[in-house]
Every structure is written in structure tokens, then in C-alpha cells.
## 1
Amino acid sequence: MHNFDAKLLALLRGASRVAILTGAGISAESGLPTFRGPGGWWRNYRAEDLATPEAFERDPQLVWEWYRHRRAQVQQHLPNAGHTALAEMQRRAGHLTLITQCVDRYHQQAGARGVIELHGNLIESRCLQCGAQTEGATEIWREGLPYCACGGLRRPAVVWFGESLPGAALQQAFRAAEECDIFFSIGTSALVYPAAHLPHLARDAGAAIVEINPEKTPLTPQAHWFLQGRAGEILPGLVQAFS
Ligand code: BV8
Ligand code: ZN
């Protein structure tokens, strides 16, 4: 059990606006592999080599095989105590904005509301022809590829490397980072931009930065609190700090 610094607990009790950024590490204890940690490989491919428009252009069947594999993993596992704690914190805190780089929608499944998805989600797919974006059930699969009723090929509804993030989501996330009293960075290696810029925005606007991660990251030196450990073990202990 983590014993938290009294100053941090007092800050949480008094915080009126909290912003939280999560990365793949929040779903690690659900059994989903992170991008850069163990299991971040699939067959002999690195995630970053597959999560690109070029890879999809070159071999859409391979990329869809990877996403279907990941969809199956998401369906076979469940949100963990970290996701549940964050949803509970949101219910208790005055104003808590949850921003995620995850594409598994576990935050929503655990009851969080108004989740800002910076990198899209892998549950839905988008038609390259008519732009319709819907859940997998409407996909018409032929030879390892999903098609739209309009005949167009569909792609995973995620943001790939080299693609811009959804403008509205990014604006909302920037505003939450600039307006919060306390910013949590949880389960992210703080390497992928522009998401990794958010804690710096918050710090420059005067927020206290709390990082939760079993390992140090490039953000750690800038964090006011570094809670070293797993999100699923640390977060439940923090919930009661929110009155
Ligand atoms: C853009 C969706 C340009 C797909 C993803 C050089 C320098 C700086 C930037 C760049 C550069 N070269 C290229 C760029 C830009 C690039 C980027 O930042 N690259 C990085 C790698 C250097 N960014 C982009 O391309 C972005 N777009 O910049 O557009 C542009 C600009 C204008 C106009 C047009 C275009 C798009 C980025 C989005 C890419 N898509 N995902 C999919 O999921 O399939 S990113 C992918 O990485 C996931 O979303 C993932 O969440 C994200 C970040 O990784 P993390 O979440 O941090 O996961 P990671 O595995 O790295 O770390 C896990 C952490 O958890 C670890 O720290 C571990 O210790 C910790 N952990 C483990 N267990 C636990 C735990 N923590 C807590 N509890 C535990 N139990
Ligand atoms: Zn279509």
C-alpha cells in the first residue's frame, strides 16, 4: 500500500480542476501489451512500424490482422482497478478531465465520462470513400479486409504516426491542461507528441504535475510528485483523497 505525501493529499482535496493523461501503461494490468514494453511486438513487427499510413498502404491485410488481434485482446480482457479508480475519482472530484492515448475504450467501459481520445479507438473503423465511422459490426469482410456498405475500404479509426490528431480533441486537451490545478501523467512513456506536450503546458500554467509509472520517463524530472509503481496498485489508494 502506497503511503502518500500529506501535501499531495491536501492538494487533491483542494483541487477544483484535475486533468489526467493516460497511456498504454494504464491497460497493462488488464493484460494488454504496451507499445514499448514487453509484448509491444507482434510476430516480428514493432507496433510503430505497423501503426502508420505507409504500412496500411503497403499491406492493408497485415495491418488489419494486427488490429483484429488487438481487438480480440481488448474483448478478452477487462478494465482494471486503475480504470475503475479513475472513474470513481471523476465522480468525486469537482472537475476532472480524462485524456487518453489508449485506443481500447477501457476508460469508458469502467464508467469514465467525456473521455478525450487523442489517438482514436480500435473498436470502430472509417470508410475511406464516404467517411462513415462505425463499430466493427457494420464491417463487410472480404479476403481479410473490411468494406463499407458504399463499397469503400475501411481503415481502423485510430491516429497513426505521421497523422494529425483530431483537432477538437487536441484543443479540448490543451485547454484542460492549461486550466487545471493538478495534472496526472499515468502509464505513458511521455515520448509521443503532441500528447507528451500536455504536462509541460500544465506545468507552465502553474499546475502541480504528478506522474505514476513503474519506471522513470523524460517527464519525471519535471514532475512535482513521481509515484513509482503500477497504476492499478497506486490509484485505488488515491481515490479517497478526492472528497
Ligand atoms: C503527429 C494509435 C504530425 C495507433 C498511436 C521526432 C521527435 C518528436 C516527434 C516526432 C519525431 N518523429 C515523429 C514525430 C511525431 C510522432 C511522435 O511523437 N513520435 C515519437 C515516437 C517520437 N507523433 C506523431 O506522429 C503524431 N502525429 O505528430 O502529426 C503532423 C503535424 C501536423 C500536421 C500533420 C501531421 C501521432 C501520434 C499518434 C500515433 N498513434 N496510437 C494504435 O494504437 O495502433 S501512438 C501509441 O503510442 C499509442 O497511442 C500509445 O498510447 C502511444 C504512446 O505510448 P504510451 O501510451 O506512452 O505507451 P508506451 O508503451 O510507450 O509506454 C507505456 C508506459 O507505461 C511505460 O512508461 C511503462 O513504464 C508504463 N507502464 C507499464 N506498466 C504500467 C505502466 N504504468 C503504470 N502502471 C502499469 N502497470
Ligand atoms: Zn463508405
## 2
Amino acid sequence: MALRNIRNYNEEDTILRKKSKVVKIIDEKTQILLADMADTMYQANGVGLAAPQIGILKRLVVIDVGEGLIKLINPVILERSGEQQDMEGCLSVPDISGEVLRPQKVRIKAQDENGDYFELEGTDLLARAFCHELDHLDGILFIDKILPDTTVSNIEQ
Ligand code: ZN
């Protein structure tokens, strides 16, 4: 088990605002990185983690909304439908939460650790996690999408 440091978002550190690169070679290093990302996510009690959050600009994501670990390499959204509005937070922006509008259901495509393509459908929290984590790969943060007047501070006064 290897834990990585989760980057906290701040204006000076621009890594979370950069676009991540497509993973062209899927090898043992990729598998180790995904395993470390999963360990780091579980340790932080998160439901998802994208590689840029540990300072690595590669299109890699891990998610577990309580239905088992999902590892995604080069994920893309194929379809979105419906709408849901709910509270959202981010391990890289621990100070605030806020309500974000997301699709109720999304269908994604990604590669597994053997490089094979697969498709997955997610509804509710899983759909939200897919959208939130895939946004990270394009330098988009949930704070860009918080609905007006729904921001909540997580810092105890
Ligand atoms: Zn996040």
C-alpha cells in the first residue's frame, strides 16, 4: 500500500487546472499508480480520485461509491440524460461544499488495465462521481459549477 499526497487547490498551484494526457502505454507502472490512487482515495474517505489530484497529469480515475472499486483509463462520457441537483465536495477543495447540477445518468467508455475497452452506466451518485472525476482530467473543478447561494463552509468556526 502506498499513499500519495493529495493536492489542495489554490490559485498558485495550477496543476489542477491543466488538461491531463491520454495514457498511451498501459503497463505495470499504470497498474501501480491506479492501486496507489485507490489506497489514497480510501484513506481520505473519498468516493473518487483523479490522477491530477496527486500531481500526475494522466487520464486515470478511481471511483468507489460503495459498490466496489472502478479503475478507469482514458475515460470518456458517451451519453448523459436527466438531471440531479445535490451537494458535492472534493478532496482537493476540502474547505467548501456546494450544490452542483449533474446528469441523472451517464454512460462512459474507458480502458481497463489490459488496455481493453469497456462501457459502464452510472446513475445517481455514480453518475455524479463519473462527471466530477472526468472534469478533473480537463482541469475543471466542481467549484466552477456550484449553484448560486448553495456554498457551505466545511471549516469549523
Ligand atoms: Zn474532486
